Amino acid sequence: MPTITAFESSPDRGRGQARDMRVRWALEEVGQPYDVRLLSFAAMKQPTHRALHPFGQIPTYEDGDLTLFESGAIVLHIAEHHDGLLPKDANARSRAIAWMFAALSTMEPPIVELSMAMLLERDRSWHAERLPGLQERVRIRLGELSGHISNADWLDGAFSVGDLMMVTVLRRLNTSGLLDEFPEIAAYVARGEARPAFRRALEAQLAVFTAASRS
User: Fold this and answer.
1) What does the pLDDT look like over 60-94, one tens digit per residue?
2) What's the predicted TM-score (pTM) here?
3) pLDDT value at position 15?
4) How far apart are CA 141 and CA 185, in angstroms?
5) Considering only CA atoms, which of 87, 73, 62 is closest in space to residue 3?
């Protein structure tokens, strides 16, 4: 049974934004049981954990003699070794992986930059001046993605690892108000969040915060 690492105390109060959520969801989609090793922020920076993740972050993934870090690499590994997240057709499979990279390389950077600015820079004198530019960068990407999705349920036919990664990236905008400007994308995210495997993963991550808040 694989073991993944996660925060012992949810930094987002159980909203499912930490990147172990992506791995949890993938494992739930393919029906693979897993263990979770919870880490404090201090423990993440210790040599024991850095031997698994050189940047001292989560998640990591251990299965037998294999250790992986980076959520995208872990999710792709899961998809490649279990049915359910990658199409059988070779071309469709490659397209699903391309959408994974699009989520991580094209969509996520401006979304994370906006999220961090809203979270960490509100008290800076230049915050109000910088924020509109960050929002516009995200709007451009959302507009481009919206044009692709149109009336389709998923990015390329059936739900795939590309959708799993894209939805987890887009969920960072749930409290920004920007998704309200793009109804097709808001509905797309809602479809992902409605999947039973997503709900199970979110409940598991939320349980960590609930347990920590009671201790």
Assistant:
1) 999 999 999 999 999 999 999 999 999 999 999 99
2) 0.93
3) 73
4) 11
5) 62
